[in-house]
Amino acid sequence: MVVMKFGGTSVADQSAIERLIAIVRAQRQADAQQEGGDARGPIVVVSAMSKVTDRLLGIAANAGAGDIEGAQNNLRELRHRHIAVSTVITDAVQREQLIAFLDHEFNELERVVQALAVLREVSPRWFDAIAAMGEILSSRMVAAALTSHGLRAAWIDARRTVITDGEHTCAVPQLPETTSSLMINVDPPLAAGRIPVMGGFVGATSDGVTTTLGRGGSDYSAAIIGACLGAGEIQIWTDVDGMLTADPRIVSNPYVVPHLSFAEASELAYFGAKVLHPATIQPAVARNIPVRILNSHRPQARGTLITAARPTSERPLTAIASKKDVSVISISSTRMLMAHGFLRRLFEVFEKWKTSVDVVTTSEVTVSVTVDDRRRLPAIVEALSQFADVEAEHEMAIVCVVGEGLQTDPQLIGQVLQGIGEVPIRLVSQAASRSNVTFVIRESDLPSALARLHQRFFAPVSAPAGLA
Ligand code: ASP
Ligand code: MG
After folding, report:
1. What's 408's domain CATH number?
2. What digits encode the pLDDT tens for the residues 290-328?
3. Which residues fall inside 5 Å of ion ligand 2, going by CB?
4. Residue 47 CA: which ligand 1 atom is closest?
5. Fewer CB within 10 Å, N side or C side of the chain?
């Protein structure tokens, strides 16, 4: 059985939901045709329609500020948008029922928001109750839309099905409890040949208090549901073709990476485009369930498959991630560097100013770190200057080259560094796992360095080798 998760842009309006219906229908047909295959399902997990969660958080902020009018205007717009999209439900009775549901939920939300606006306080518990509405509404809408298009669906309320701890806004699903409640709520409709549809991002404590799993949490929901039910595959339907070999804004001819190991995906996400945050699919990968990233605008494209490990490919490198606009801070102290406690003292400064560092290298007398958040840099430099010489360079870029070939071929790292051409390299760092090498160059050198690297290591296989 397959879990299909559709992100916000894949349920954004009538035509997006129509595409979703066609995709689910095709999956169902493929499952039915598979000999000896599991004809149950799929299970559909959806995000809120795009931008709805932001709007709901805005409404919570309106309420906290006592801005009743602002909250009401926002709520009215959201209600109209949902009612407009509900025309995708072709069956009159189904649509009437959905509109009645929308009215009920929006009236309730309006009452809650008004009360909170009077108190001018939104506790984490109410904050989650408001934020969860986007997925509750979109999932109910998609269930009705599927049914009215001949794919009998069953709406499952995630607030009764995904059981989490009580950490509001970043709740963690509890696997044993969620497994039992999925069996109670999802197995019967599956057995009856229906398609369970539920909202991602949303859960509840075992006492029934609504929680949310953190921004982008629908991927996490899909992974948890897939892991609990032992799904055969989890599909993440989004609006891009998958993970690319390089940033398309910098390199002219990147292509979709067909298969990534979980470790590679994690390295890439750390610095690169955030198609999906690999940490959110970890529960599925840990149970050996393949996760596939697919484009709902181009369902025929193969997408990117992420698995715990992957078969070796003919290419030594998998992809290049990059990040612009970083600063390198070099901290030198001939007196202190080798003294114990120096690094602790140094990192305490970054911790105090809540600034995270990405790349770290140390030499005999210098520690260099990169940061991308410059807001507190003057204070950080001042604090570090109390005990070391500090130098900051801006407009730098991080390049992270990922590929399991780096583990097996000791020559490769040299070829990579050579491959960028006559570009001064500021820092180099290689992880212990050795499936990546990260280096820092000037931002102005980034386009040419990436173009050369991409040409050398990612040119079509049929092209003459050794182009540099
Ligand atoms: N709707 C939520 C968000 O915007 C969760 C998700 O889309 O994954 O963060
Ligand atoms: Mg997302």
Report:
1. 3.30.2130.10
2. 999 999 999 999 999 999 988 877 788 999 999 999 999
3. 7, 216
4. 7
5. C
Residue 468 above 50 pLDDT?
no
- Rounded to two decimals, the pTM is 0.88
- Decide if pLDDT at 257 tops 60: yes
Residues 178 and 36 in one domain: yes
Ligand 1 pocket, residue 215 CB under 6 Å: yes
Residues 398, 324: Cα–Cα separation, whole Å = 7
Pocket test of ligand 1: the residue of 215, 224, 237, 281 to mutate, having most ligand atoms within 8 Å of its CB, is 215
Structural domain for 344, as ranges: 319-458
Question: Domain count of the chain?
Answer: 2
Structure letter (DSSP) for residue 244:
B
Quick: pLDDT tens for 389-431: 999 999 999 999 998 888 888 899 999 999 998 999 999 998 7
- The amino acid that residue 96 corresponds to is E
Instruction: Select from 238, 271, 292 the last residue of a domain.
Output: 238
Same domain, 85 and 203: yes
Q: Which helix (H) or strand (E) holds 21?
A: helix 14-33
Of 238, 270, 300, the last residue of a domain is 238
DSSP one-letter code for 10: G
- 3-class SS shares of the chain: helix, strand, coil, % to 5: 45, 20, 35
Q: What residues form DSSP beta bridges with 173? A: 164
Residue nearest to atom 6 of ligand 1 (CA): 216
